[in-house]
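hey so i finally got around to running the thing on that chain from the lab meeting. sorry it took forever, my laptop kept dying and i had to restart like 3 times. anyway pasting the input first so we r on the same page abt which one it is
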Amino acid sequence: MDKALLKKALAIAAIVLLVIIVSISYFFTLYRISNTDEIINKIFSTLTPIILGAVFAYIMKSTCNFFERKITRWVQKGKAKDRDKVRKFASITAIILTYITWLAVITGLLWIAIPQIIQSISKFANDLIIKIPEYTNLIIEWEQKFLKDNEMLRPFFDKAIEWFISWSETDLIPWLQGLVSRIIPMILGVLTSVFDIVIGLVISFFILLGRRTLAKKSILFLHCIFK
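ok and heres what got predicted. didnt touch it at all, straight out
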């Protein structure tokens, strides 16, 4: 056999074997360890600020680059200055302006959007509560019209309609009536993760501060893995 083909075959066999080992280990861990969910939740809760920081940095990167270019041109205009000092000043100032800009935009959007969302959901729930009896009557009329001579299917539809009426009166309508009162605690629940958001913002600051170095190192790392 050709040596090149042999190397490719061995590489494929090694990859397949590795996938099988990892799969077996995963399922063994999943079925043998009783607190797997707890471990996974702890890992994700620990990584949440880092993930948020990376997401924040990625979203704010373009804005930060824009401010940095403008500040660099403004500082260097007409004067010969130390490039390193200009770069550091422009980078830190651009990050601060980026945070101020994005916080102002997000605050304004939330100020406008949250009341509208609550009002829309409330209107939807109230309209649906009013429409449920109409929908039920339409289903009953359809059944009486199209299944009046079908003795085989009509009992099943009768039971289904009875179940729907009972379920809508006992479960669906009360749930819709309390929907708005549950939305506000959900929004507050999102806001209770302020600690993760603050840590994410701190991490995003350092990511933005060293974004060019991080990008270069990431490219080198990827080139080391993928030729």
